[in-house]
Amino acid sequence: MKISKFVDVVEEAGRGLADAAAEAGTDAEVPTCPGWQVRDLLRHTAMVHRWATAFVAEARTTPDRNPGETTLDGEELLAFFREGHADLVATLRAAPESLDCWAFLPAPSPLAFWARRQAHETTVHRVDAESALASGLRPVDPAFAADGVDELLRGFHARDRSRVRTPEPRTLRVRTTDTGDVWTVHLSATEPPRTVREGEEGAVDTELSGPAHQLYLALWNRMPLDAVTVTGDGGLARLWRETSAI
Nearest Cα to 51, choosing from 157, 122, 106? Predict the structure, then answer.
């Protein structure tokens, strides 16, 4: 996806998050984030948006501590969230593609990283806010959802800090049934998961398959594993579920 398309998603997802939060109320429980209420979700996402904005707006080239969460609540918290979200969108739109700033996952450019990361950050938390509503979740665009699976597998879990380990070498395949995307994840005891995008169709220990929207949310722990099809060793799927939280 182009940077501009990711920014469009940041804008739409942030508005959806705020609208769902306003409808649910800040006291509402967030089923996809046990122990959280909507106020916790708004405070967290507002903090992340401001943290990301600072790197892009100020071209910061070294990691920095996040600014901490606000203690605002109710309508003031919603207004605070909307203000920070609008600032993030405007900052991403105004930034030059040549921007040099810190990023923590591989990407074509730092701006591409921040646009993509905030698009998925905000979309997942939009889903969290919608889980507090009786009307339920709106679907995630399949192509965008597949990109989020890719970011999780080949970005976050390629880092040494990934906790997904197996006592002996194992393989996990992830396959979207609507977009035709395939990832093969090689697991071991000592190395972070190594994911190959397509090209490997041999036998694996476990395969997770389903529509991209459902795989995206299941792998980000926003849907139960039974929302997708698990073939092979179900224990490996459960291990992923238990150790893959970001």
Answer: 122
The pLDDT of residue 199 is above 70: no
Bridge partners (DSSP) of residue 170 are 187
Amino acid at 139: P
Residue whose token pair is 């398959």: 209
Tens digits of residue pLDDT in 83-106: 999 999 999 999 999 999 999 999
Residue type, 155: G
CA dihedral 27, 148, 84, 59 (to 10 degrees): 150
What SS3 state is found at 184?
strand
Cα–Cα distance between 149 and 219 in angstroms, integer? 7
H-type alpha helices, 61-156 = 74-94, 110-130, 142-150
Distance in angstroms (rounded) separating the CA atoms of residues 239 and 9: 31
Nearest by Cα to 16 from 101, 109, 140, 108: 140
Query: Alpha-carbon distance 157 to 245, whole Å?
Result: 10
- Collect contacts of 219-222 with beta carbons under 8 A, ≥24 apart: 219/149, 219/152, 219/153, 219/174, 219/244, 220/124, 220/148, 220/152, 220/246, 221/32, 221/245, 222/32, 222/124, 222/127, 222/128, 222/131
